Recover the amino acids of this structure.
């Protein structure tokens, strides 16, 4: 479990987050959604320890992350996997070297143990045999799966995903969603996903948190979305005519 308690974040005179209180459930895909500028990325970075809140606390289970020293922070970060929006692979490294990088940085495993773990993660994301390829030699969807393999190589308790479907076609986006969802369930990970992809909301949104102008405007699950009367949620979710029709059909049924 990860919890944001009374989180505020300001840059100069700009209040980006205002009194955010969210509990992110273990073993579930927890989504943060909202329009551009709502504060999604800032909140994700605070939860991951990449930014410090102006005020408030971030809890990892029973540990107050904001009160830790640098050595204790390192221990927590070894339990965290991060999938960046653009995959953030090292262009000069092969696929296997990209995935191995966290193992080289944070563990004392033997080379064979690291290679075995890399190969397992490649198999898990359906990329076995692509070890020696470079990012420029594989598709965007494959790069994203390499990013997922790297994010899970340390067998994390917590997984952060920043716009995992950004730049992908709909079919590949569904594949990535299902992969993240299955990894979350299999390993009982606390997964937090920053997204505006409505397919992700309706398919894997175990818990959905809507930010609007720096405030937490709504929380619920994917089943609640179609029945909610929250105007901010409706304005965001049902901007698509297709989803508006889907909602009307669900309410009639």
């Amino acid at each position: 479990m990860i919890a944001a308690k009374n989180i505020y974040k300001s840059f100069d005179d700009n209040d980006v987050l205002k009194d955010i209180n969210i509990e992110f459930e273990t073993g579930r895909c927890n989504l943060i959604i909202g329009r551009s500028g709502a504060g999604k990325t800032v909140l994700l970075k605070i939860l991951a320890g990449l930014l410090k809140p102006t005020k408030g606390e971030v809890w990892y289970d029973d540990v107050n992350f904001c009160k830790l020293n640098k050595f204790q922070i390192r221990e927590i970060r070894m339990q965290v996997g991060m999938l960046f929006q653009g995959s953030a692979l090292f262009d000069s490294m092969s696929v296997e070297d990209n995935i191995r990088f966290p193992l080289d940085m944070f563990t004392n495993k033997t080379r064979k143990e690291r290679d075995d773990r890399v190969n397992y993660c490649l198999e898990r994301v359906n990329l076995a045999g692509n070890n020696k390829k470079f990012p420029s030699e594989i598709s965007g969807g494959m790069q994203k799966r390499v990013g997922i393999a790297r994010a899970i190589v340390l067998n994390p308790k917590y997984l952060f995903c920043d716009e995992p479907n950004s730049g992908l076609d709909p079919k590949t986006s569904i594949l990535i969603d299902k992969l993240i969802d299955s990894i979350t369930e299999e390993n009982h990970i606390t997964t937090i996903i920053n997204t505006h992809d409505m397919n992700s909301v309706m398919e894997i949104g175990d818990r959905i948190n809507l930010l609007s102008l720096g405030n937490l405007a709504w929380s619920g699950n994917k089943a609640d979305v179609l029945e909610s009367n929250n105007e901010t949620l409706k304005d965001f979710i049902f901007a698509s005519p297709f989803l508006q029709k889907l909602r009307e059909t669900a309410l009639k049924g």
About this structure: The chain has a mean pLDDT of 91. The chain has two domains: 1-79+156-226, 89-155. Residues 89-155 form one domain.
